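Aim 2, interim progress: modelling of the zinc ion-bound target.
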Amino acid sequence: MADRNDILVQCTRCRNKHQQSERIALPSELGHSMVCPRCGCKNYYDMTPQVAWCWASGLIEMGSEEQVPEGGIIIARGPKAFLKGELLAAARHGWERDQLLVPGVPEAANQREAAEALDKFLAWRGKSNGRRGSNGVIYSQPGKPMGSTT
Ligand SMILES: [Zn+2]
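Predicted structure of the complex, ligand included:
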């Protein structure tokens, strides 16, 4: 990407994908609004690629590819607008605000049990990989987590 401030977006109406900088300024009550170059819709999804990883504790975090920490296990990738919503629906909510956990991992008795719980979660959620309703969110497949270099 040439401009790091530019982001890939998708129109909520016509589903056209374009860079935010390609949106067209249209006069509105607020001066102008940036609209879809194809259909003129004001709303869009942020399609910036994001990665979700989890810690051995089961805690899930999200960020850009460069933010994946050493020791973090990559569990899913997808557009920013959809990855968080998918995990909010799929993961278990922790005690702290906004804390997301892989079900079964925090209470696992040992590392092997934790790995099994993670595999189960990935196999379950991975069933929708590539399907229309997945909105581009792809889960790592059990036993072969996606490396951060792929
Ligand atoms: Zn559009």
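Helices lie at 80-90, 111-126. DSSP finds two helices and eleven strands in the chain.
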